[in-house]
Amino acid sequence: MRHRIALASALVSTLAACDDPASLAGPAATEPASLKQAGAQTEVAATTQLLVTGLDELQGSAVGPGGALFVTAPLTGSIWRVDPTTGALTLFASGLPPRLPGLEFIGGGVVDVAFIGGTAYALVTGVGADIGGDAVVGIYRVDGPGSATIVADIGAFSVANPPVPDFFVPTGWQYAIEPFRGGFLVTDGHHNRVLRVTLDGEITEVIAFSDIVPTGLAVSGNSIYLAQAGPIPHLPQNGKVVTFELGSTTAAEVASGARLAVDVEFGRGRTLFVLSQGFWDGPFEGTPALPNTGALLRVNEDGSLTTVVDGLDRPTSVEIIKNTAYVVTLGGEVWRVDNIAGPPFGH
After folding, report:
1. Could you give the C-alpha distances from 87 to 16, 19, 72, 82, 303, in angstroms and in order?
2. What is the tens place of the pLDDT at every residue in 217-250?
3. C-alpha span between 11 and 8 (Å, rounded)
4. Phi, psi of 104 (to 5 degrees)
5. DSSP symbols for 55-72
6. For 25-338, which CATH class?
7. N or C: lower Cβ tally within 10 Å for the chain?
8. Domain boundaries, the chain
């Protein structure tokens, strides 16, 4: 079955986030057994700092104007600007479609943000009429602090151009947006494909997959890099980074072993990193990993993985500025991770 990548739709996981003291802990000092079994090794002496706490249910992120960090808050339909040095917060945009109120809809709403020049574009999913909502599933241009314009109706495209079955949400369940050649690439973790979207609203399918659950994106030249969460039970060998180009019908594997991979980003010197949400032991598809089992991993030249930091609490996205990673978590936190790569790229 194709799986919706709503990474927190179970009541049990939400209760864990609110009531379990362990879910409030910071990154752990020891490596989870799952990563050891997957072949990752801890070699980088990274340091961590809790930069932001107290926001509601964060999901996506981007580096925007002035080198600031921008994070999405689906529950409130808002986007926050974060000072990457101090953690100071400024409300950047509000009034976007919030996610639906049921716990099963966590992972919907404003799930990601991207910038072209100084203009922000928000990716909104899981709000369509097919699941009881009343908003457009697609890309919204942020015109001001409280106003936005729909530029691409991805939900309508998905209904008119369904993927190969099996799926159960006709409008799809998108996860990430990435600037690409004056427009965007968008992953759909439910329909198992990557879409290309222009600023005029034209939408085309770039590549389709079997049940691999595509999540985060990164671009380097003509090459597109994609994180794959893999189908439940999200075994480490199915958590992969793959690469392809426009016109490709298949993707080449770059690395595997990241349990429930949710994002991929480049650091200095084309060093590639993948974000693992961690151990999955949920009662049904769509539930997140267990608290405090996520990790940021560095991809080595031979396809192996090195643990940069572990013990992350259900991370959903990562951004890299110089030699520092900013990890966004489902629990409303942003962690700053310094010294993510050693010499020569760590200086």
Report:
1. 25, 25, 15, 6, 34
2. 999 999 999 999 999 888 899 999 999 999 999 9
3. 8
4. -70, -10
5. -S----EEE-GGG-EEEE
6. mainly beta
7. C
8. 25-338
